[in-house]
């Protein structure tokens, strides 16, 4: 992984993060956010994976149904955010649309993915803290503006 902060002002810091072949995307981006002290950011990315696991959230079961994509795929769109979790560590929430060789797509919540050949991510850090809080009624953690630090 390589990264570079390409912009900064009083309102935002912009980071470009480039992941290389073989890196696990979700873990690498989470690690970057932790090492950079990012507690509030938006995220976009494009690139490709050699395989990925996305999830569809089943509200009734309060869990993700895993959708395995065991083939090379293009990251047509990745969009998400970073907020501090209940443990104080960065928590990513990323949705992806993946393009397959036949032109069809798969999409959902990014759970895991192996990069091949690259993933180019832009994180725009906000000058505030956001907090993601576990919602037992839903079974997931969502941003809670009442407990945010900013």
UniProtKB/TrEMBL annotation:
Q: What InterPro entries is this protein classified in? A: DNA_bp_PD1, PPC_dom
The keyword Transcription regulation is assigned to this record: no
Q: Which residues form the PPC domain?
A: 8-146
Q: Does the keyword Transmembrane helix apply?
A: no
Enumerate the UniProt keywords alphabetically: DNA-binding
An example of a GO molecular function for this protein is: DNA binding
List the coiled-coil residues: none
Recorded superkingdom: Bacteria
Which PANTHER family does the protein's record reference? DNA-BINDING PROTEIN, PROTEIN, PUTATIVE-RELATED
Protein name (Swiss-Prot/TrEMBL): DNA-binding protein
Give the species: Bradyrhizobium australiense
Phylogenetic classification of the source organism: Bacteria, Pseudomonadati, Pseudomonadota, Alphaproteobacteria, Hyphomicrobiales
């Amino acid at each position: 992984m390589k990264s570079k902060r390409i912009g900064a002002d009083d309102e935002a810091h912009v980071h470009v993060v480039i992941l290389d072949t073989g890196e696990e995307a979700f873990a690498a981006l989470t690690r970057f956010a932790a090492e950079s002290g990012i507690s509030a950011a938006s995220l976009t990315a494009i690139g490709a994976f050699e395989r990925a696991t996305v999830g569809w959230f089943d509200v009734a079961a309060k869990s993700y149904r895993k959708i395995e994509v065991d083939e090379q795929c293009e990251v047509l769109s990745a969009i998400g955010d970073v907020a501090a979790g209940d443990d104080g560590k960065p928590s990513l929430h990323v949705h992806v649309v993946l393009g397959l060789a036949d032109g069809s797509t798969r999409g959902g919540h990014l759970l895991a993915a192996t990069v091949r050949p690259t993933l180019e991510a832009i994180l725009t850090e906000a000058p505030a803290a956001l907090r993601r809080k576990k919602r037992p009624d839903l079974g997931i953690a969502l941003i809670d503006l009442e407990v945010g630090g900013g």
